[in-house]
Amino acid sequence: MAEIILERIYSFRLRQKMKKYPRWLRAKKASKHVRNFLSKHLKTEPEMIKIDKSLNEKIWSRGAQKPPARIKVRAVKFDDGVVEAELA
Length: 88
Fold this sequence. Notes:
Elements: E1 4-13, H1 15-18, H2 26-41, E2 49-51, H3 53-59, E3 70-78, E4 83-87
Parallel strand pairs: 2-4
Antiparallel strand pairs: 1-3, 3-4
């Protein structure tokens, strides 16, 4: 079993990032932004980040055009480099 190296809670402000994208792409870009942010701050590849079902449903809860303005994410990094992100 993999051991936990790092556990952090991040708060994302998605409203400012999503203004510049067309409405029909906003939820998709929001999930990609979360993945890229976590890969940068937890020093791992974006492919090694697993987004939990609850977090994905929260981003897509209002449809593709209106993702939430803010979300809190709990990220856990394991010793094999895998990061699990879930709703905080």
